[in-house]
From TrEMBL:
PROSITE patterns: TPR (PS50005), TPR_REGION (PS50293). TPR repeats lie at residues 135-168, 206-239, 274-307. Gene3D superfamilies: Tetratricopeptide repeat domain. It comes from Salipaludibacillus aurantiacus. This is Tetratricopeptide repeat-containing protein.
Amino acid sequence: MEEKLTHAIQLIEQGQHEEGLKKTEALEKTADDETKRTIAELYFELGLVDKALTIIEKLMFQYPDHGELFAFAAECYSELGKEDEAIEMLTEIKNGDPAYVQAQLLLADLYESQGLEEVAEQKLIDALKSEPEEAVLQFGLGEFYLNRGDYQQAISYYKKAIHNGSLPEDLPIQPELKLAEAYSATGEFEDALAYYREGLEDEETPDGLFGFGFTALQIEDYETAVSAFTRLIEMDPDYTTVYSYLAKAYIAQKKLGEAMEVLEEGIKKDEFNEDLYLELAKLQFSKGKHEEGKTFLEKVIALNPSNVSAVKELLVYFNNEEDYEAILDLLTFLDDFGEFDPLFEKFRAKALFEEDNVLEAAESYQVALDSLSKDEVLVEEASMAFLAAGKKEQAIGLLEELLLMQPHRFDIEERLVELKKPND
């Protein structure tokens, strides 16, 4: 029986799915219960969850005290989108059952996916009270708090799980890498790097290498960042997020040629990655190639009009070029997509004023003043627009604010004196 099942599995692994499944289904009819369980696991792995559940439900009826069967059924129900049935299965597994710990972890995941975070947390805490030395539960709480953004709590439980020394070897990721991720999120980059190194010594994973490189980048350890990111690309060239960060590390080392090559290679892998075009634009501007930089920014905005960073970069470029018509065209294009940022109004207002649309300029300046911090340039520009639009009192108020910011501006004092003179 075991040999026949092994042969069926081999056929499936070799791509002969139909023949392999036929042999498996034939075996299912005469198999003993242990083999049936193995067949159910095979069906589950192949995505045939309904077929797996059918077998498991029959086994549960025969072995009502085997909690691992209820846990398996819960996983099937969860895969089928039947969370309530999954929860019902898991609550049947009582404390003391070998599957109890697994059940609490699965329950926590289900409750968390339903937005019931407090219930999920309490399930894990209660389980840990019953099994205070259970490293898997400690690790599970670390995962819960990391996902919730409570990094200090995550660090505490991850460290307990690691120091416990009894974590199973088949965890999907090295626990040291998860601890490193939590440390990095708190800004404790040196501690994070130490745990990344420890975890990556045991097993290099794409996410682990990315986190290692990203953390090194934060403390300006560019050599380590480049090494980690390069190894990641060698391992998984389709991990396209990494290319822009590797380019940043090269740029920090003033290796602009290498940065350009990395960004271009990244675009070959993902032509819709706006971050790569944005970094290329910045790189071109830094090399004085403004027209090329503009072209890449326009590419970003075409891909994603809500990319505020790209829009701001392009607005600054047009403003420096005094191309006010281009500013207005760009902002009209964004208006059509419903995109708005208060900073946009500052550029729109100046462009309108320079194009002699003083009334509209004053309106845009008012929006900018209401939404942005009042820096000296904005206040002075707005005062000029209000004056031109005939809004004398508003202009006076702004000039008075400007004088408080720049008390040595005698020209503003003189302007205020002139504006406050009574009309003849």
